[in-house]
Amino acid sequence: MASRIGVYVCHCGTNIAGRVDSAGVARFAAGLKNVVVARDYKFMCSDPGQDMIIKDIREMGLTRVVVASCSPRLHEKTFQKACQRGGLNPFLFQMTCIREHCSWVVADPGEATAKARNLVAAAVSRVNYHDELHSRVEAVHPDVLVVGGGIAGIQAALDIAKSGHKVHLVEKGPSIGGHMAQFDKTFPTLDCAACISTPKMVAVAQEPNINLMTMSEVVEVKGYVGNYTVRVRTAPRYVKQDLCTGCGLCMEKCPKSVTSEFEEGIGKRKAIHRNSPQSVPNTPVIDPAVCIHFVKGKCGACEKHCPSGAIDFQQTESFLDLQVGTVVLATGFDILDPSSLPQYGFGRYPEVYTGLQFERLNNAVGPTGGKIVMKNGRPPESVGIIHCVGSRDANHHPYCSRVCCMYALKYDHLIKDKVGHATRVYNFYIDMRCFGKGYEEFYRRVQEEGVTFIRGRPAEITDRASSTAEEGKLVVVCEDTLLGRTLRVPVDMVVLCTAMTPRRDASDVARVFGISQGQDGFFLEEHPKLGPVSTATDGIFLAGTCQGPKDIPDAVAHASGGAGQALALAARGEVDISPTVSWINPDICVGCKMCIDLCAYSAIEFDERRKVSVINEAMCKGCGSCAGHCPSGAAQIRHFNGKQVFAEMEGLLSPTPEAPGAEAV
């Protein structure tokens, strides 16, 4: 029996109709094969637009529906649900994009309309070959995995735990807190960072519904939404957490000192150490790469002096398999290494610091006890703060890091407050972006404190003096774009506001969890506006700066959003699994096993008895890698099979001319 197709063309206000003749496209569609009704409407996604589709399905007996509107990423599910409410299987629907692909990218209205007609013809030709597909329902495991113990991971874990669900919080480092644990004050309220974060860190340790796993990382993920099996590798701490009292005697007696990563290279730590007195957990960790016992087989001072016998040099790494239903990724960010910008002299001049190094100078438990002093122990008389180091730079990172302007203003205030009001502070900026609540007011406050703002990106930092005033100083060479002249500003200290970048292991994490990265390297969300915490992999959500640069309030809010999405699945207890997955025709499969190696989700197994490959539909994501590479054509994707794709191509290349017979409204 011939299909009965309804075609609906959206105006999208003037987004489409401003360039495409939507009514003309509907008239054209009315002449296509098997089309019994073609309509255009101002907003097809609105309730009246959806009601129009439902009414036509019921009254005209439509067996197929085509909607020409915006991107399927935005509203495909909207229209599929409308078809379902009308009594039509949602997979007997096809959506074609005439906004992003036509009206927004084609300047000439005639060409845009012609292209829209071709796309509609292709969709109509394809939908004739659609088959009914049915989603299946799977149970959702109630436990949730949170990866990353920074402020975003902490917030997500606490939100989920409050609902009564079990949370496994996996942190790669020896303690939680992330970068926020390194900060001294937070903008714009100048609250103590430790005073804000430490209670949350302690709450995580004391929450019975949170299983905190430090020194751990996820190495393998199997399964599908609602039923993930996660393998976690835990590195040895060489200190028994159940016996350690956190007295710190082992650190006092350890004779080996090395540069501290937590202090950003400007402070020291022992071979057995913890990040700070507020660390959670408060148990020290031994670094086997520098510990005398592991390197030379001697020492053992920590073991000798530990009053509780907590030192255990025999610990080895361990593995644990966790069953979870959903995952929240909160792996955070790194800062740009400014050594890649040699003009700023980082690593060459001792008084050039990164923002995080300056945070540790300010911190009361930092290497200087919170005093802002130079390497010679004297406070600086003048400080230059350079914004956008590596950000908004075509040679490094084109995006704005969003926090640099505000933490530069925070440093301005702290320098004036701690060193003295007479200290000269210079800000070298491109644009001031003070967008958050209370941010503009803080900017004005700093201006009133006497900070100098110079608009222009510095060309270089040099120690070559051209006058007596520059002798013994660092000289910031720049152009003031407001004055239109070159300046040489002598200062004692320079702070570089470096870009927020994706973590160095972001690509490895993306591979393990089967998610994508954007052009900037951060994890890619499902939709920038409507799905900012979701990913293309169902059941895996994002939280905080792993998705892109954010300040603390935005990271916390984003984390709560990710936690809410994870809870929505966990609380429901079941999830619909899409049927658009691959399948392998056993009559055609030659057993070459090429698809098994290609599958990124380990969803294909080999049946030794029949000598053919078999798809595990529960794990398949329908990416199409197997179908694209199968030499025998045995692998296909449901809803994207050969007949459907070739029919779409035929409709695109040879659209049927307009003909009478169908109803165009």
Q: Could you outline the blueprint of secondary structure elements for this entry?
A:
Layout: E1 5-10, H1 22-29, E2 35-41, H2 47-60, E3 64-69, H3 72-85, E4 93-97, H4 99-103, H5 109-127, E5 136-139, E6 144-147, H6 151-162, E7 167-170, E8 185-186, E9 191-192, H7 193-206, E10 210-213, E11 216-224, E12 227-234, H8 249-253, E13 257-259, E14 268-270, E15 272-273, E16 285-286, H9 292-296, H10 301-305, E17 318-324, E18 326-329, E19 333-335, E20 352-354, H11 355-362, E21 382-389, H12 404-418, E22 424-429, H13 439-448, E23 452-455, E24 460-462, E25 474-480, E26 485-491, E27 493-498, E28 500-502, H14 506-513, E29 540-542, H15 552-572, E30 574-577, E31 582-584, H16 594-598, E32 604-607, E33 612-615, H17 625-629, E34 635-637, H18 642-653, E35 663-664
Parallel strand pairs: 1-2, 1-3, 2-35, 3-4, 6-7, 6-18, 7-10, 18-29, 20-27, 21-22, 21-27, 22-23
Antiparallel strand pairs: 5-30, 8-9, 11-12, 12-17, 13-14, 15-16, 19-28, 24-25, 25-26, 31-34, 32-33
Specify the number of helices: 18
Categorize the overall geometry: globular
Q: Spans with pLDDT under 50 lasting ≥5 residues?
A: none
Number of E-type strands: 35
Distance between the termini: 25 Å
How confident is the prediction overall: mean pLDDT? 94
Give the strand order, joined by hyphens, for the main sheet: 4-3-1-2-35
Q: Look at the helices and sheets and give the structural class.
A: alpha/beta
How would you describe the oligomerization state of the chains in this entry?
single chain
Q: What percentage of residues falls in helices of 4 or more residues?
A: 25-40%
Assess the beta-strand content as a share of residues. 15-25%
Gyration radius from CA atoms, angstroms: 30 Å
Q: What's the story with the biggest beta sheet? A: 5 strands, parallel
